[in-house]
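User: structure tokens for this one?
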Amino acid sequence: MAVGVVVDGHARVFDYGVVSLRARVPVRPDTLFEIGSASKTFTATLASYAVVTAHMSLSEAVSRYFRSLRGTPFGDRVSLLNLVTHTPGRDTPASACRRPHPL
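Assistant:
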């Protein structure tokens, strides 16, 4: 694990552990880590903060924030809420898509 902390504009990095249990290679400042699904947590946290501070609205079209998508069906008809809930392209309300549990 590597932890970075910034206090009063000064950055400090602390390294802990090993890269491989088998090789016992210690973590160093230049060690590369795979972030995998952890990035979803950071993205959701930052998006939530942007919504709470009124810098972003989940009901807005994707093209408002991604200019390269302006004038495209995806950019102009899909909302940020559609993206985070994996529902782009659905024309029906979420309540109409619910099915009874198969059990």
